Amino acid sequence: MSLADEVRIFVYENYVKVTRERGEATLRIRAGDVHQAMNLKGKFPTVCGALGSKVFCERHGLTLLNREGPSCGANAYYTYKL
C-alpha cells in the first residue's frame, strides 16, 4: 500500500466518517493537521496530492468544492461537499 493510500484511508476514517456521522454537509481539512496527526516528516506533497485526488473524492463520494493556500504545504486547505 502506498503512503498516499494510507493518507486517504486515515482521512476517511478520522475526518470524513466523523463529519458524516455528525450530519454535516461540508468538511474543511488542513493538510498540516493530517501531516501532524499521521506523524509524517516532509511528506506534504503526498498529503496534498492525496487530499486533492480524484481517486479520494470518487472513493468516498466527495466533491472538492475549494482548495486554498499554497499548492503544497501545511496551510493548504481542502473543502469538500459530503
What would your notes on this structure say?
Helices cover 50% and strands 20% of the residues. The protein has 82 residues and is an alpha+beta fold. The protein has one domain (3-81). The chain has a three-stranded antiparallel β-sheet. A hairpin with an 8-residue loop joins strand 2 (63-68) and strand 3 (77-81).
Map the helices and strands.
Layout: H1 3-21, E1 26-30, H2 31-37, H3 44-51, H4 54-60, E2 63-68, E3 77-81
Antiparallel strand pairs: 1-3, 2-3
Number of helices, counting only DSSP H or I runs of 4 residues or more: 4
Number of strands: 3
Average pLDDT works out at 97
* Largest beta-sheet details: 3 strands, antiparallel
Taking strands numbered 1, 2, ... along the chain, how are they ordered across the largest sheet? 1-3-2
Keywords, separated by commas or semicolons:
20% strand; alpha+beta; 3-stranded antiparallel beta sheet; 82 residues; globular; 50% helix
